[in-house]
Amino acid sequence: MKALVTVEGKTAQIQDVDVPNPGEGEIIVKTHYVAQNPTDWKSMLSVPPGRILGCDFAGTVQDSNGSHWREGQRVSGFVFGSSHNPPRGAFAEYITTEASLVYPIPDDVSYQDAAVIPLAFATAVQAIFGRLKLPEPSKPAKTVFPFLVNGGASSVGQYAIQLGKLAGAFVIATGSSQNHELLRSLGADAVIDYKDPNWTEEVRKLTHDGLEFAFDCISENSTIEAVSKALSPTKGGHIITILAVDQIRDKIENKKVKLESTIVYTVFGRPIKYGSFDNCGEPTPQDKALWEKYLAMLPDLLSSGKIKPNKVRERGGLDAILAGLKEHQEGKVRAEKLVYKIS
């Protein structure tokens, strides 16, 4: 098969490689569309040569390998792109993955829309229900509580807003002014321009100094410190970040604030070494079980309109991905996901 593989010089090129054989409990998916995430260009710059890039995919089951899936069935999911044990990567004509870690694409959802959901949605699920322990959609809160999503227009942030509403929260989302209409359309109860130097004070006014739960979907350029100042000054609270926070903890003035990073690759259940992220040094069966639970819920959430996919921009095929990664690295991809047609 053809795949986008890392090579010397911190770049990648299309190469002919073998399709990884499925092990027990694994299937092979014929790739129709893939979606791009920030982790893809970051991986290209950091992993050794010979790794297949890419995480998000949508396609059809090529080899069900004795699983409950039928060959030809439309499925979508994400893999730990550029990993080698086991070998994984979505920017390829075929993908080997765990049979329990894909979802059936509803008839009314396109491959393009299906592909942009898995990794970002899984990150939001893990942060909100696995780490913050907010009420789940099956049992939403009876009393409304405030929940802050910083970076609401990011791919993860858009799903966090929607999941926060399903949890029963009063969702406050930050974003640039041009994205406020988008954030409201996703269910945000209040939107705040993070470029306003007094935005944290606005959050404190809105929440009457009662905010205890926050998800920082940016987690860089002092955003974590800013989010911490929006939390209750007396009770503190819990902030989940999408980047490691070991260098930030000592800078948080409110010592009642719990700061915790989350990395979505723990949904595969295996211990991983991924920088200084929390919650990833030991086996993580609880994270895998949570993701399997939400994969089973996802088709109904999509068909009912309770979860809306990110905006899609189709950019070409496998040979267009390198240019798309460069565009992402340069900060030119905002409030949308780049997708590529593989077959």
TrEMBL record:
InterPro entries: ADH-like_C, ADH-like_N, ER, GroES-like_sf, NAD(P)-bd_dom_sf, Trans-enoyl_RdTase-like. The keyword Oxidoreductase applies. Keywords: Oxidoreductase. The keyword Oxidoreductase applies. Belongs to the zinc-containing alcohol dehydrogenase family. This is Enoyl reductase (ER) domain-containing protein. Pfam families: ADH_N, ADH_zinc_N. One of its GO terms (molecular function) is oxidoreductase activity, acting on NAD(P)H. SUPFAM superfamilies: GroES-like (SSF50129), NAD(P)-binding Rossmann-fold domains (SSF51735).
